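Re-run with default settings, no changes from the original entry. Doing this only to confirm the output is reproducible before filing.
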Amino acid sequence: MNERIRVREVRLIDENGAQAGVVPIAEALNRARAAGLDLIEVAPNATPPVCRIMDYGKYKYQQQKREKESRKKHRQSELRMIKVRPRIDPHDFETKLKAVRKFVEQGDKVRLTVFFRYRELAHPEFGQRVLDQFVERTGDVALVERGAMREGRQLSMVLTAKPGAVKKPAAAPSEEPQAAAAARADAEGGQEARERAAQAQPAGES
């Protein structure tokens, strides 16, 4: 960044994102100071390195945001808990169903647990019916990892995502590939312009 960039010349992108071509490092630094901004090396491995005039604080914020999105993409699966009653009302069922689908689609496992009151223990089939409804309504995205098991006054099962059902978060664009691509386009555009000029030159001129 700024004076720490130890090269003779850079391919410069100005504060508006426009290509400024290859310029001496001193000129790039002067233009950054005149704009009240910083000179940031965004593609150090390019030849020459690509630098951009921009706000360093904003650049760091965007970089941290991309890293955060990357961590989300590689997040560990969690076991989510959803509790229901054997005589769940339709509205509550739909709410719980949305939650189950959301968790499964983001890569988490879901433990569905039906809690029985003492009188309800005489009819465990009501709880099984509720679990079967969840299995049926999530069949496009989920698989039963562990079937229904009775544990005291509760009946539970575990759902997991089907292969391909997990929705991947959109990746944040990377600054370096964009800058490198812009640099290539600028270089190729300059080469095309030189070729066109050579073709238009009258015969006999050198």
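The chain has five helices and eight strands. The beta strands are 9-13, 19-24, 38-43, 50-54, 79-84, 109-115, 142-151, 154-161.
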